[in-house]
Write a structure and sequence with these properties.
With about 425 residues, this protein is an alpha/beta fold. It is about 50% helix and about 10% strand.
Length: about 425
């Protein structure tokens, strides 16, 4: 099959490469010329174990191509995936869909035959309906089929997660779209991996509900940790006792600073906003956000009341309990990668370019953290995740620990959530 992947970020690059490894012909499209040039030269702008070798193998076999030419790519496509970013929107916490809709419009304009358009990006409930309407209004001359295929990839084990998933979720309501998606995932179906076919809204909600539940599990064990401290119990033993129950399981029952990374903060917030917009408040998840904010506020209050006030003001300005992911990166960095391509907020990217005297990033996460500390607006908190569900938060007084950890665990992917005043 001819597959087009719009977006070569973490999800798009890993998914496109794995589809190529299944034997499909994949064209990965990105509008960033520097990133495409890196990929065409065999350089991988993210860190994921084994990805560089898999990319090289499939490029050599002629099954994987990188380009900026969306028209040529889409013209031959049987299926087009939208895999662009959906960050939290400033001010209200909703998922920002401008990149998704921009990609959809470009795809519609480039199509010359009936095609299945699949949303891989994490989008709020109802987005695929809007995409369907948008495509049909823009191209009434073609039969266009819309599907939702949320990703469940963990940084550091994304290839394993893609090739050996617990399940494949496909939201598709036409026979043609269902058939195409089943053909696409046939190698996994041969291994008895379950493929769930649902409606569009159901598939969208499965992704948000999954992340919100895991965030809730982390917050729950943190609440238990607080109680353990007061009554003299051992939270590790409590977690082990709970996790031994097959109905609960041991994963994400590690007491600590709360959840971080590039997905949980924005997805829990987006789910809360969706619930409120539809008059169905998800009070459990709202309390999870309250607990996370409370942790940060308590930590800062213990160290510096002014920092705590600055954090409160930043969160209030950004929206209801918003933790906006200003910075997301994966180590080791590749030379020549622009600061803006690391997911840095545009204002912060300008600071980094000014301070470093270059528009390119450092080669290692620890150097990036050191450099951020010298920026005009230093971070209040850095939350890192190793890709295994474990998270750790480092505040300014103990930021050296983060630098040491980046050296101690060189093979694990690292993401950072920076909250700025």
């Amino acid at each position: 099959m001819h597959v087009v992947m719009i977006g070569t970020g973490y999800v798009g690059l890993v998914s496109g490469t794995c589809f190529a490894d299944f034997g499909h012909h994949v064209v990965c499209v990105d509008n960033n010329p520097e990133k495409i040039e890196l990929l065409q030269n065999g350089e991988i702008p993210i860190y994921e174990p084994g990805l560089d070798l898999m990319v090289a193998k499939n490029v050599a076999a002629g099954r994987l191509v990188f380009t900026q030419d969306i028209s040529a790519a889409v013209a031959k496509a049987d299926v087009v995936f939208i895999a662009v970013g959906t960050p939290s929107r400033r001010g209200d916490g909703h998922a920002d869909l401008q990149y998704v809709f921009a990609a959809v419009d470009e795809v519609a304009d480039a199509m010359i035959k009936s095609t299945v358009v699949v949303t891989k990006s994490t989008v709020p409930v109802g987005t695929n309906r809007k995409i369907e309407v948008r495509l049909k209004e823009r191209r009434p001359d073609l039969d266009i089929f819309v599907a939702s295929n949320p990703e469940f990839l963990r940084e550091g084990s994304a290839i394993e997660d893609f090739k050996r998933p617990d399940r494949i979720v496909v939201g598709a309501e036409t026979t043609h779209a269902q058939t195409v998606m089943e053909r696409l995932y046939r190698p996994l179906r041969l291994n008895k991996i379950p493929l769930m076919t649902t409606g569009l809204e159901t598939a969208e909600l499965i992704k948000y509900a999954s992340n919100a539940f895991l965030a809730t599990k982390i917050s729950f064990i943190n609440e238990m940790a607080n109680l353990c401290e007061q009554v003299g119990a051992n939270v590790q033993d409590v977690a082990r006792g709970m996790g031994s129950d097959n109905r609960i399981g041991p994963k994400f029952l590690h007491a600590g600073p709360g959840y971080g990374g590039s997905c949980f903060p924005k997805d829990t917030l987006a789910l809360v906003k969706t619930g409120r917009d539809h008059n169905a408040p998800i009070t459990i998840v709202e309390q999870v956000l309250v607990e996370y904010r409370s942790y940060l506020s308590t930590e800062f209050q213990a160290r510096d009341p002014q920092l705590r006030q600055a954090l409160e003001a930043a969160l209030d300005e950004a929206g209801f309990l918003a933790q906006e992911p200003f910075f997301q990166a994966h180590r080791p960095f590749k030379s020549g990668l622009p600061w803006r391509e690391l997911g840095l907020d545009a204002r912060l990217a300008q600071v980094m370019e000014k301070r470093s005297g270059s528009d390119t990033a450092y080669l290692h996460q620890s150097e990036a953290i050191r450099h951020l500390l010298s920026a005009e607006a230093g971070p209040l908190a850095v939350t890192t995740g190793t890709g295994s569900g474990k998270t750790e938060t480092f505040l300014l007084p103990v930021i050296q620990n983060a630098i040491e950890d980046s050296v101690r665990f060189p093979q694990s992917g690292l993401t950072a959530l920076l909250v700025y005043p």
